[in-house]
Task: structure prediction
Amino acid sequence: MAAGDEILVVGAGVVGASVALHLAALGHERVTVLDTRGPEHLPGSTGLAPGFVGQLSATPELAVLAKDSVATYLALSAGADEPPFRQVGCLEVATTPARLEQAHADVEHGRRLGIEAYVVDAATAVAHAPALVDAGRALGGLFIPTDGAAEPVALTKALIAEAERAGVRFRWNTPVGALESENGRVTGVRTRDGGEHLRAGHVVLAVGIWGPVLAATAGVRLPMVDVQHPYMFTAERPELDDTPIDGPLVRYPDQTVYARRHGRRYGLGSYAHRPLPLEPTEDLTSAERPFVASDFETALDEATALVPAFRGARLGHRLNGVFAMTPDELPLVGPAPGVPGLWLAEASWVTHAAGVGRQLANQLLETGDTLVDPARLAPGRFDAWSDLKVRETALGNYQGIYDAH
Result:
């Protein structure tokens, strides 16, 4: 691409901010990020994320993207009074002999991926996080010391600040209503209010669950499904201070439950419920949907009985957040198939956002230097699939987690 081409990034969440920062870091001088909100708000998926950053994955590409993200987040946090990322580690609690055996296999898997991990006994697991580990059920666990906890809002603001220092321009309160095309090529965007046409050599969509809505205005189908997911907090605990987190993230793989400290509260999420897809629309203004107790109460009741800090605790906010899934659980990163000028950085979480930003920037600027094989993340990899197959397979991934529980 030409060095002087304007690049518009739509979406200033954690992924869009990362894309912009990496484009500027590679020397591109004309990058503008558009977002429907003001800089003081994060109403998208980023603002609802619990901030778990785990690197060990059965999918090597996800591990590579997560490792790169951790490196970026550590650099952003260096010297900060309130670092947006803390490398507190992650403990995966084994409550069955089979899970403990799997933990030993995961140590070797982590070694092959360059991720340190080791098995701990039951007493050590409890000592790592006594408020979150069930001493009566823990047989041991897998500890990954380089994993960590992000504060997603603070992390995104740090990425934005670094991008602005590198010359990126942010236009707030600029809702994008449609992509503009000429002769089959995306040439910019049209804003929703007033219909202003903003031209660009390339447009990057990094709008999370809203991606399918905007992509469709250029005739592009995004092979992803938006899914609802619960997360809940205790009420504030008088024995806790404002320290965001003072121990590792905790996961219960067999129960599909995860938990952490959030300052004066504890939080947990659970996948042990039936998949609940959501069809995004232009009018959808938040990734938080109404919390319907009947959808989630069984899963959360089981989770609160498992995690000590929640047993008998006074409960606080319960949220229903929406995130995107693809049929293979990998993000959509790269050029939109058959539509020049349009690029996608979609279906990514905080865990992989910085790596996705670096991957997309290197592809767009044609540096020849990518973290993973671009074909593995190519948005067109499901072009031969029907809408029904995309939907059923993506939801099947969530259903698989639910069925395993």
Observations:
- The longest helix spans residues 60-77.
